């Protein structure tokens, strides 16, 4: 109904002032898939994923740029083409299927012709690959109102398979800090790998992630948050059939929820607004009768007693040079906030958690957006994390103080 009212006001204003309608914001997309790597293990379904996503976005009204098996230079040309199409206020969708790697706190997308690095040549990868944060910044720098980044690149570290085992994380991509107006969806959670297929007899042309993503992109009225939760559940269920842990993670800094396949005119008419009048100065609005008054809820019998305040400070290390200090702080009976500082890069992070269980001095928290569990073990003064539904726990930080 709110959308209908806003539409009504906008059209009435234009009719009364005689002003022409402003050019609508565009939808533009860059969709890339890379199977045939020159110096890294080949993939089987990334190009198929690119074709499926490109066709879907085109059907949703996006002006789609596509790229298959791109070299670094070709990728740069496609990014420049995307830049040229973005005007302030536009919506941008970026999809990449291929190899990616985490170097420290940064994620990199690997082009087809990435040179085969030797141990210790991390900077070669940084120079020849494409940093995800840099792509996000250049899109936002063009004035995009909303940007969606979907990355199916969370596979086993391809550099290790190429002989450079000391470069990059063992598997998957690392978490990201997104600016306002940006939504990032990874095909797997932190420390997880994304499956190309369920097995050698899997005849589906798309990866486990993309085969779940594409139908949901087409669903009328599906918001970006609802899509992320549905993809998480469906991919988790598919991967579990082959005893693999894969729960896509998302990072959201979009205010409100955006419909990826809006119902358009059908939604407006359902709300009671008739836009088919020949004269825009006359628009019929169906006014629904006021709802029956709802009796006030009875006051609670007693005020619940909250647990005492608790702050858990910690320190740890990510990679050789990234020292992290931070704390988990309880905000209320179930809500927790993690705040930390990374030395490389020099930045602060904030993450929200919900307390799920407490057994003595062991507290378990869940960040549902990243499918990440945290265990605060006050007995051993250690913090552990899990992204496979608590099937396995990994040491994360040392607790330095509690209060």
Account of the 3D structure:
This protein is of the alpha+beta class. It has 2 domains: 23-252, Rossmann fold (3-Layer(aba) Sandwich); 311-402. The protein has 9 helices and 17 strands. The chain has helices spanning 2-17, 46-59, 72-85, 122-128, 132-141, 158-161, 208-218, 224-240, 265-270, and strands at 27-33, 63-68, 91-97, 100-103, 106-109, 130-131, 146-152, 182-186, 250-252, 311-318, 322-330, 335-342, 347-359, 362-367, 372-377, 382-386, 394-402.
Write a brief structural summary:
The N and C termini lie far apart (48 Å). The protein has 2 domains: 230 residues, Rossmann fold (3-Layer(aba) Sandwich); 92 residues.
Keywords, separated by commas or semicolons:
6-stranded mixed sheet; 2 domains; 25% helix; globular; 403 residues; Rossmann fold; alpha+beta; 8-stranded antiparallel barrel
């Amino acid at each position: 109904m709110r959308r209908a009212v806003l539409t009504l006001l906008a059209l009435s204003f234009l009719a009364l002032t005689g002003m022409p309608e402003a050019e609508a914001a565009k939808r533009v997309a860059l969709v890339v898939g890379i199977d045939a790597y020159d110096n890294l293990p080949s993939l089987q379904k990334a190009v198929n994923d690119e074709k499926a996503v490109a066709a879907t976005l085109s059907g949703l009204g996006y002006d789609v740029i596509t790229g298959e098996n791109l070299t670094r230079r070709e990728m740069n040309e496609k990014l420049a083409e995307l830049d040229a199409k973005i005007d302030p206020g536009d919506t941008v969708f970026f999809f990449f299927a291929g190899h990616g790697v985490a170097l420290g706190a940064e994620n990199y997308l690997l082009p087809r012709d990435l040179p085969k690095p030797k141990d210790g040549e991390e900077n070669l990868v940084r120079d020849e690959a494409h940093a995800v944060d840099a792509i996000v910044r250049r899109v936002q720098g063009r004035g995009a109102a909303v940007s969606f980044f979907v990355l199916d690149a969370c596979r086993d570290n391809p550099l290790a398979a190429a002989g450079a085992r000391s470069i990059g994380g063992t598997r998957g991509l690392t978490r990201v800090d997104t600016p306002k107006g940006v939504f990032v969806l990874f095909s797997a959670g932190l420390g997880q790998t994304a499956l190309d297929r369920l097995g050698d007899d899997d005849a589906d042309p798309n990866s486990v992630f993309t085969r779940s993503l594409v139908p949901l992109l087409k669903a009328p009225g599906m918001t970006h948050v609802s899509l992320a939760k549905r993809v998480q559940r469906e991919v988790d269920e598919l991967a579990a059939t082959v005893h693999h842990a894969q729960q896509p993670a998302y990072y959201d800094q979009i205010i409100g929820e955006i419909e990826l396949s809006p119902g358009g005119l059908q939604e407006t008419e359902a709300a009671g607004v008739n836009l088919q009048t020949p004269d825009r100065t006359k628009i019929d609005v169906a006014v629904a009768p006021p709802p029956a008054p709802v009796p006030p809820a009875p006051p609670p019998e007693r005020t619940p007693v909250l647990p005492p305040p608790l702050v858990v400070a910690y320190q740890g290390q990510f990679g050789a040079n990234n020292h992290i200090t931070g704390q988990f702080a309880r905000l209320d009976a179930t809500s927790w906030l993690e705040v930390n500082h990374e030395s490389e890069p020099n930045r602060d992070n904030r993450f929200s958690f919900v307390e799920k269980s407490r057994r003595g001095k062991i507290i378990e928290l869940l960040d549902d957006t990243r499918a990440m569990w945290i265990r605060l073990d006050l007995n051993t003064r250690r913090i552990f994390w899990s992204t496979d539904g608590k099937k396995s726990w990994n040491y994360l930080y040392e607790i330095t103080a509690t209060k």
